[in-house]
Protein 1
Amino acid sequence: MVKETIRVYARVKPLGRRQQAGSYSVDDEEDLLSSLEITVPRDLADGFVNNKRETYKFKFQKIFDQEAKQDVVFDSIAKPVAECVLAGYNGTIFAYGQTGSGKTFTITGGAERYSDRGIIPRTLSYIFDQLQKDSSKVYTTHVSYLEIYNECGYDLLDPRHEASRLEDLPKVTIMEDSDQNIHLKNLSLQQATNEEEALNLLFLGDTNRMIAETPMNQASSRSHCIFTVHISSKEPGSATIRRSKLHLVDLAGSERVAKTGVGGHLLTEAKYINLSLHYLEQVIIALAEKNRSHIPYRNSMMTSVLRDSLGGNCMTAMIATLSIDKRNIDESISTCRFAQRVALIKNEAVLNEEIDPRLMIVQLKKEIQDLKDELELVTGKQRTSELSQEELLQLDELIETFLKDNDPDSTLDVGADMRKIKYCFIHMKQLMNHPTTSDKKLLSRNISEEEDTNKESGEELEKLKDLLQQRDNEINILVNMLKKEKKKAQDALFQLNASSACSTVLEQSLSINLEDRQSPSSCFSLKGAKDFSSSVHRLPFLSRQTGGKMSLGCQEAFEVFKRDHADSITIEDNKQLLKQRFAEVKCLGEKLNKVRSKINCLKGEITQRHIQRAALAVSSPSEELNMFDPVEEKLRMQIEEEKKSYKTMFNRFKGLKVEIEHLQLLMEKVKMKMQKDFEVWWSEEAKSLQEKPEMVTSANTVTVYPQFIKSLQHLSTNSFSEITRVSPNEDPAGKNNSITFSNPTLKARTPQSSSTSIPLTGDSQADADILAFMKARQRILQRKGLENK
Ligand code: ADP
Ligand code: MG
């Protein structure tokens, strides 16, 4: 059992461009703990912060200041917890702080760069790396991803659902058994056998979360997300299983509302926006109090789920995320205060071991058999059947090893079988009577031969020996040939594996539409490659895309929107990076191919040599041929060298593969975010068109068709309160065939684009979309104009 207080860390988010830094300092030296000092300026202190104090000091296990990178945060906080989890203890890491302070960035990571990977992907990578290294146990890994919003749990990993609202996801409920253990009903545990599968699940969950969020529910800041890795391990042959869980928790924003009206209220009196965080604080206060027997875990779903992590069987770490600009100083102080309370909580982690009943049965059965054998021996009941040829050979080997062993304490253990014991005695007797045959010939093989040799003359014996030698030689040649064929088959298999690994990566290049599509010089073929994108297909984004109800006009507007979107730079950057990585992978693939052919060549030379020597042994037998071959040894050393360099390159290759996969998932996510932003923006545009119908209809050349309104309605997530309908018949001339926009304020700045005329298509749906597109375009230009100004 490990008794430990919860480790509490702080991370300060880098300041934004327009943010003003609050006054704070970090002191790392103090008695191993770090301390953070926050000074509240007078003007703020007079307002809503307690005006009696100006400086606040808080202690943390370690403080990560603005420039701290994700890898350092992972190494210090998550790695030790992950190690405990691998050893069979439960672990939890949770991030607490106001919205925008960097919780998601710390737990999941940034959406732009590979280096911004957060604790979850890094932990997955670390765990699977460790599992691969440890061959002494059999491991099974599952993941689950739970979102708790408004006291309701939702399963983010259900692959059957394509959520467009949170309510579409399967609902998860809490059940408590008679031992007061919490069980989550309906939360799916998905098996992940490697890092790639686990990452895909993480991205699936994140995507579901993003899609399900609407501006109304603000799920990301008001909900708690718990990503859990479940590991079970077992030593082969043992009936004991270790099970551990690692919760990685992104809590809801901890911002509070101060009591209104009176100034100078203490911060602690301010109320959380999120009620479950209020209950979390109550649990923490109760745990920190001595002699308190009742801890109110049951008040909220989140505290029930995290019950073991707080004051229970778990190694827990908390990260207080702080946004230290002037406006957020009061919230940062609240976060630090909360952290100080958490630091007092003691947890008792125990090794989660249990006995698997099925394995226990197998073990007990074996024990019963052993005991039966022993009983038979003691009671004198014996088996009468003959020993099989195989058993006899095994016994010969045992006897031989026993006789050769110089250790005086060595024993000959043949079990409690009287037949075997008798056979051993006979064998020993024969060896004593015919010591010359002891070296080469074993009893079982030679019982019949021996009888013959007793009868035959010495001459015949010589003949037989010659024949035997000849046969041995022939067998040697055949065995060598067989080995060669086997090696060929193995090499072919190996080549197939390597090529499918490489082509998996190359395949991905196709899915992101890079120009560099082919690898002509590489023998890594694309044929038969495992399709990586199949895993990405699990993301709901693609099905949304292929749902493809976007009309032509809408698509054009989307193109313009994409160009202007801030994330397009990220996509471009990542594309460039991916291109680089692909070039590297390609180059590495070629090198790997070369090394592999070299190894095959060397192996071929060795086989050749074997055959030559075997042939020589047949034609002119000599002692020399049975001795060590220096040429072969040299070839073997060369192979070892090549293998080493192959391994290094292959590891790099694998690393690149993981990076490429991650970048692609990031890009998918950014693209989807862009689409979502577009839909929101588009519906807003439509709404404003509705609210100001005169802008559309004032130019006497414009007609708004009912379908337009309908098409906008289907795009919009909000319903329209007032809908202006203008029927096609109201077109005064009835032969309107162009839309013209003119905006006097824009004319001076962008004379060419301020007034554009586009022919109508005649398809009312498309026309309506074109109309909206033009409007959108105009707004963008307007915005750009303002920015330039
Ligand atoms: P929260 O989840 O607490 O609401 P986020 O993690 O979403 O906050 O962070 C808000 C914004 O700040 C995001 O755009 C994120 O990329 C950025 N950010 C947060 N922490 C850091 C950091 N340590 N370094 C760089 N950017 C950060
Ligand atoms: Mg967040």
Protein 2
Amino acid sequence: MTGKTIVLGIGGGIACYKIADLASKITQNGADVHAVLTHSATKFIAPLTFQALTHNPALSSLWSEENNLESGKSAGMPHIALADGADLILIAPATADLLARLAGGLGDDLLTTLVLATRAPVAIAPAMNPTMLAHPATQKNLETLRALGYRIIEPDEGRMACEHIGSGRLPETAELLAHIEAILFPNLDLAGKTVVITAGPTRESLDPVRYLTNRSSGKMGYALAEVAARRGAKVTLVSGPTNVQTPQKVEKIGVETALQMLEATQNAFQSADIMIAAAAPADFRARCIEPQKIKRGACKTAEISLIANPDIVAQCAANKRAGQIVVGFAAETQNLMKEARKKLNSKNLDAIVANDVTQAGAGFDVETNRVTWITAQTAQEWPLATKTEVAARIWDEILKF
Ligand code: C5P
């Protein structure tokens, strides 16, 4: 990181003690690191800690005389000097209050003023009590910040200092370091590629209030889209209903049924170089959707008549042009390799990502995945990793075709 100037914006949350470790590591890595603490942060950790670790003055005020600098070290207008010189501003931990001030465009302290005055990329790692994070006001602020182009580093789940369990933990130093590296040294090896990714479940209506669906969360497909966009690809994400945030620079087409997913995917596939089918479209839909809510009646049993949905990835792959690459997923509960190879061949895929969804840490609605990458020539078992790491590896492999 030699030659790079990084501003660490530190908010007043208990997780700010972790940033001392990060400050030390990036300084040792050669970066010129400047810590800027909010007033509340100084209650948790002394600016002197950062001063000692970064060998630069740690600032906490817009007003030079309040920064306790040695004489001769006054930066005059620190927010302008730092804003102009920074290659990256990383704000961690970002408290609910700090998020609100940033989303509102306030410049009521050194850190928020700095963010307004910079052209450098700004990454924000929220960390707080899970209820505060889930509060609609906080979520709205995060949405605003995403729309403004700030990069939000998603908080981890786990036990909090306040003894609550949930989402809101500051990610570990290694993960923050990975984000810093990805921003400072972007890998644009997918630049010029157009990709279409399917994600999430579909919903197949039975009547006006009921539908058939499955446990797919969409997380794997969204991770693939996020990584591809970050690496320079033009990404269309055709997604069934999910709760996952649409990654930056991704065009999302929201659909509900498998038939809608088929239409949107086929359209996008025409101009795509690569398709990855990470969705779990329903294999069947109701033969006819009842126009009125189905009544319980006197019967003790009920039957739903189903018909097969089209196989989206197979239909796209059947018509692929020379040079187009199609990758599918196979979520299995038994005979993983045999079933996956069968799908690789029958669906005319270039590769299939197989996972045994009965294994711990793999499959639906978890942050991690353990998969086997299968092509006509190879089968590689990859270790348990986050879905983002698995996504990065899938793109690495696709680029080898
Ligand atoms: O459901 P199945 O195990 O066959 O899914 C394997 C692959 O086929 C996945 O990539 C999935 O996205 C895709 N698929 C599809 N359309 C369907 C069913 C599955 O594209 N109707």
Protein 3
Amino acid sequence: MTRKVHIKTYGCQMNAYDSVRMAEALAPEGYEETDDPAAADLVVLNTCHIREKAAEKIYSELGRLRLLQNERRANGANMKIAVAGCVAQAEGEEIIRRAPVVDLVVGPQNYHRLPDLLRDGQKSAKAVDTEFPAEDKFASLPERARQRTPTAFLTVQEGCDKFCTFCVVPYTRGAEFSRPAADILEEARRLAGFGVREITLLGQNVNAYMGDGADGRGWTLARLIEALADIPGLARLRYTTSHPADMGDDLIAAHRDIPALMPYLHLPFQAGADRILAAMNRKHTAAHYLRLIERIRQARPDIAMSTDIIVGFPGETDAEFEETMQVVREVNFAQAYSFKYSPRPGTPASTMDDQIPEAAKSERLATLQSLLAEQQKAFNAAQIGRTLPVLLEKPGRKSGQLAGRSPYLQPVHVTDHGGEIGQIVLADITESSANSLSGVIISGTKETKVHINSAPPASGETAGTLLRQ
Ligand code: 5AD
Ligand code: SF4
């Protein structure tokens, strides 16, 4: 019997990856994916708990789903509702108490058990599974069945042992766990077999990766990247998200030595004042962060830096906020995410004295974001006149256009001169805006026809990618 499942994803890229894997776990049960919740026999909300706003969204969505469920029931059909992800993990049975419409609550470590839970749920009224199991959930999930886009996420590490005092992740995702390298390589080869050209390695603390190596030794993220770079067809590798304390020498060197490793790094620093960093339990100072960036730029001078910043952590003074601004000025980010501190139940910072008033947080965020927007605009504008390799990912918004990404992760819109999705073409960058670039394809339609000698050394990727063909 075919049934339909609608999965709605909130939050980070790891949730996006998990949603794909949930769909794959449900496929053998006869579930096909649908974009339309009204047509679904099962709706899964894959939730985010990182900030209060993100968690509250779930309850309003559940209110809307209750109406849809009533409509389906009136038409003689049913709709089960499951809550997965970090709200499921953090709130467990409380979700069913607050929203009785929910049939099933499943934490991120238990997606491989979804089919069983749904079957059990047919007998018992409601099912809740938020235990941290001993088994490796990835090993228990079915193999990746397909991938339609030339870019894919691949989770290599989950959980976090850092316990930043503002953050729920160590509680919702549990202790750090690294997948064995052999499993990751196998999944990456499958993805390459489906035509994937770019893989982003995911982990809450991805650069703390320490997995069983294919050679019986412990592998770092750098070693894993080196092995992945040898997989035929894979032209681009990225990883996210990193912690400054785990930025090992070998990983920095990988940015110099491995052409497939893209010149883009998301490295959160959160705050610029050492007193706040200590209260956040960040394990680095502002000077340590700045020195690290200097070393990374020595290894890869054109690297695009990205970060996460929190304003209004408890006790943050105006002068301390200014120190955050100073770090931003010194680094000059290509892009960044910035947030108002949001107290999360159960975290140490939520009960600290001197919580900052909302108005002050909003003001600081606006000041910070206008500086970050300026930096991003300038970084994009600096690409005009350059020739960049662009991985074509999808049709553009306007007809006659294709959309792809530069090595620096900027969206690039190019005129469609017969380039094909999945190809890496060279494009002359002609325009830039706050968030994207526009360009004209200058290479032949086939990558193999590109004359690499005439291409400017825009990035290490140019030669590496094209020689591989
Ligand atoms: N309040 C605001 N921002 C937070 N983040 C994590 N927890 C909180 C919180 N309680 C931000 C951090 C982190 C990103 C994923 O979300 O900057 O790096
Ligand atoms: Fe949260 Fe800190 Fe772990 Fe990042 S390193 S997931 S901010 S606890």
